[in-house]
Fold this sequence. Notes:
The structure holds two protein chains of two kinds. By secondary structure, chain A is mainly β. In chain A, 0% of the residues lie in helices and 59% in strands. In chain A, the strands form two sheets. In chain A, strands 2, 4, 5, 9, 10 and 11 form a six-stranded mixed β-sheet that branches. Chain A has a five-stranded antiparallel β-sheet with strand order 1-3-8-7-6, with no helix packed on it. In chain A, β4 (29-37) and β5 (43-48) form a beta hairpin. Chain A is globular. The mean pLDDT of chain A is 94. Chain B has strands spanning 5-7, 10-13, 19-24, 31-37, 43-50, 53-56, 65-68, 75-79, 88-95, 104-105, 109-113. In chain B, strands 2, 4, 5, 6, 9, 10 and 11 form a seven-stranded mixed β-sheet that branches. A four-stranded antiparallel β-sheet of chain B has the order 1-3-8-7, with no helix packed on it. In chain B, a hairpin with a 5-residue loop joins β4 (31-37) and β5. The termini of chain B are far apart. Chain A binds chain B through residues 30-31, 33, 35, 41-45, 48, 50, 86, 88, 90, 95-103, and chain B through 1, 31, 33, 35, 41-45, 48, 55-56, 58-59, 89, 91, 93, 95, 98-105, 107-108, 110.
Amino acid sequence: GIQVEQSPPDLILQEGANSTLRCNFSDSVNNLQWFHQNPWGQLINLFYIPSGTKQNGRLSATTVATERYSLLYISSSQTTDSGVYFCAVETQGGSEKLVFGKGTKLTVNP
Amino acid sequence: NAGVMQNPRHLVRRRGQEARLRCSPMKGHSHVYWYRQLPEEGLKFMVYLQKENIIDESGMPKERFSAEFPKEGPSILRIQQVVRGDSAAYFCASSPTYRGYEQYFGPGTRLTVT
C-alpha cells in the first residue's frame, strides 16, 4: 500500500517563529488533506489540497503531485498552534480511505 | 469538521461489555468512514459505508467489531465484549460522494475499557 512519511517527527519553536512541515507519499493520489490535532484530541481540517497552493491566515500549503510531496507552512507561530499535524492521502485507483502519516508533533513555547 | 456529530464523546466500559458509537454525517453526505487512533499512534482506517452498504471493511478487526449505516439514522460502530486493547479514540468522517472528495471529521469518541 501507499507509504506516507512526515518530517520532522518533532519540532519545538519559540512563539513568532516560522516552520515548514513535509509530507512525502509513494503513489499518485486523488486526495490529500492536512489536519491539526490539538492537545484535547480534536481533529481539525486544515487543508484539502490534492494539488496546488492554498492559504488560510498564517497557514499555507503546497502539494506538488508530480513529485509526490506536500508542504505545510506555519508563519508567526502561536502557542495555540501546538499539537500534532497529520497528512493523509487517498490513493488513485484504490479504496476511498485516507492513509495517515505518523504526524509531526509541534510545540510552540511562549 | 462542523456538522459531523459523534456521541457519546466519552465512553467507559468494563471488559466484556458492549460499546456502541454513533456518527451522524454532515447534511447531504451519504458516505461515512470510521478511523481508530490507538494511544500514541496515528489514525488507521477501519471501515467505509454508504447508506445500507459496507463498501470497504479491510481495516476492521475480524472479530467483535461491526458497523452499519441504515437508511434512517446514524452510523453505528459496535464493539462486542470489549477488551483493554480497544481503548482508543474513534473518529467518524463523512463526504458527499467518493473518489477524492474532502472528508470531514467529527470530534471523536474516546473509549476507555476498565
